[in-house]
Design brief:
There is one protein chain. The chain is α/β, with parallel strands linked by helices. The protein folds into two domains: 121 residues, 3-Layer(aba) Sandwich (D-Maltodextrin-Binding Protein, domain 2); 103 residues, 3-Layer(aba) Sandwich (D-Maltodextrin-Binding Protein, domain 2), CATH 3.40.190. Helices cover 35% and strands 31% of the residues. The protein has a six-stranded mixed β-sheet. β2 and β3 form a beta hairpin. The longest helix has 16 residues. The radius of gyration is 20 Å and the shape is globular.
Length: 232
């Protein structure tokens, strides 16, 4: 009994001594840097989870494709917010839900010539997509081709800038999220409207972890996220 107790205490001590690594992208208002610190709606959730778990952690912002690869290939690395898709299902451990996004094709309200009633219509226009994002995969699966049907950028704010500069006509995003981002960036958010809602792209985004992450850490994060989100 003494040996078991000692072994258990050593495990707990070792786990709490580990500094966890969390990766995410620059996508205000969900995640962004403010006064030298990473803030935003989803980051506040993650910080509450870590506080409840009493686990030290480093949160880093990267272009989405790089953040994704770090979590895909690095043990004990957590990533948020990650859309749970069939393609990703077996490559990560899914800690829990943190947010729901309702995606649509978004355009500027004065662009009356941009008319989208079905996916095929989009191929007539200049569109953008974020590299490695679930919407990137969605377009590729539906026959869209890079540089022919869309341009690829590294982060969501770049798509917003391109839209207001009228260098692209539309892209897929949660409209409410984009309006908040536009306000933070000093744009007139009232110019943003939905050109076409995409019911099949109603996504729940997750906190997830590398597939080889220690199970003790996984259990601790699941318990704390559940406590923060008040799940049953």
């Amino acid at each position: 009994m003494f040996n078991f107790t000692l072994f258990f205490v050593l495990i707990v001590t070792n786990v709490t001594a580990i500094e966890l690594n969390f990766v995410t992208e620059n996508a205000p208002p969900l995640q962004y840097i403010k006064d030298g610190e990473i803030s935003g709606k989803t980051t506040r959730i993650i910080k509450k989870v870590l506080e409840h778990a009493q686990m030290p952690a480093k949160i880093s912002i990267y272009p989405w494709a790089r953040a994704y690869q770090k979590a895909l290939n690095g043990k004990n690395i957590f990533i948020y917010p990650l859309v749970r898709t069939v393609e990703r299902e077996n490559h990560f451990i899914w800690i829990g839900e943190i947010l729901t996004l309702n995606l649509s094709w978004v355009k500027l309200s004065h662009k009356k010539n941009i008319k989208i009633s079905k996916l095929e219509d989009v191929k007539r226009y200049k569109i953008g997509v974020m590299r490695g994002d679930a919407t990137h995969t969605y377009l590729l699966k539906h026959g869209f081709e890079k540089n022919k049907n869309f341009i690829v950028v590294s982060e969501l704010p770049k798509l917003l800038n391109l839209l207001y500069a009228e260098k692209i006509d539309s892209f897929i995003v949660d409209l409410d999220l984009l309006k908040e981002m536009a306000l933070l960036k000093g744009y007139d958010e009232k110019k943003l409207i939905s050109a076409l809602e995409i019911p099949e792209l109603k996504f729940t985004v997750y906190l997830a972890a590398n597939i080889d992450t220690d199970l003790v850490l996984i259990d601790k994060m699941k318990h704390s996220l559940c406590w923060v989100m008040k799940c049953n």
